[in-house]
Amino acid sequence: MAEELLVTEGAGQTRVVNVGSFVRFGDSAPVVIAGPCSVESERQIIETAEAVAAAGAHMLRGGAFKPRTSPYSFQGLGLDGLRYLRAAGRATGLPVVTEVMDVQDVGPVAESADMLQIGARSMQNFSLLRAAGRSGRPVLLKRGAGATLDEWLHAAEYVLAEGNRDVVLCERGIRSFEPYTRNTMDLASALAARQRTSLPVIADPSHATGRRELVVPMARAVISSGLDGVILEVHPNPDGSLSDAAQTISTDAFAALMRSLHIAPRSADLAQLRDAVDELDEAIVKLIDQRMALSARIGEVKRHHGLPVRQLSREQAILQRLSTRRDGHLTPAAVTDIWTAILSASRERQGRTAAQEGR
Ligand code: PEP
Ligand code: MN
Fold first, then answer.
1. How is domain 270-357 classified at the architecture level of CATH?
2. Which atom in ligand 1 lies closest to the alpha carbon of residue 120?
3. The pTM is what?
């Protein structure tokens, strides 16, 4: 590389890349990203997020837009997947990373995700790299399966050239003559990338090996090599994964790995958890306000038909339905208290007429 490149400035002195308010790539401790290959359902991603968070993961992964070899394979849930991923991240306090495949999706993905992933197959999609560089989000740049170290670093340069220095490189295996493993994990090039740039470098033993039984030992190798982290495919039921089942480890195997690496569960960071709670509160208030808008319309209908605002049997049915759900954390008594207050506010809203509202 004869030219002066931003990517080689300060080579060997890793710049810290922050994601969310507490993840720091390139700091002393390795960052562990875990989650399914694909977001498959709301339930699957929240279940996985809770398990990996409890085991000590620092970030959640999950593909919503999937680069599949065949157009007939599961392609991901798209925007719905993005929504589920973001909700699971918020619920567990884990920042999320997800792949963006198309320039037109950079906006929505940057809005929902804390970090954008450029996948191996897109490593030389130069317009996508430039768009990611302008997204305002940190970028996880995977190495193309057929890319040389220099090509990989030049790809990073495209992001940096847009003024975005927050790039983390990810070695995910290159294609070699060996078919037993899906790819060949090129740890030496990953370490060279770290020496030749100031970017943090992590590795992905899941895609690099393609074999579940090799993922855990290779993750150990990555951590002991001194790289800045690992990204792992984890699923509550690996064999049932809709993509990359063979290389996906169980949430139990992940927890065992974390214990053996002595990466303790992240000690609760109060400020970060409070940020997550504040965001959820905003969303809850918005939803309750939407509910009140419906109440206002119900009020109009009731008035039109001369019906009373309060219908006890309907209120009891709502309380009964909600308080018998089993969502894990909310007790029936808490549900009853909260919805008693919501129903009271709703009656008050129904009682106000459009005229009183000045509409
Ligand atoms: C992935 O992380 O889900 C993925 C598709 O990775 P890669 O681009 O490395 O194949
Ligand atoms: Mn995958």
1. Up-down Bundle (1.20)
2. 8
3. 0.79
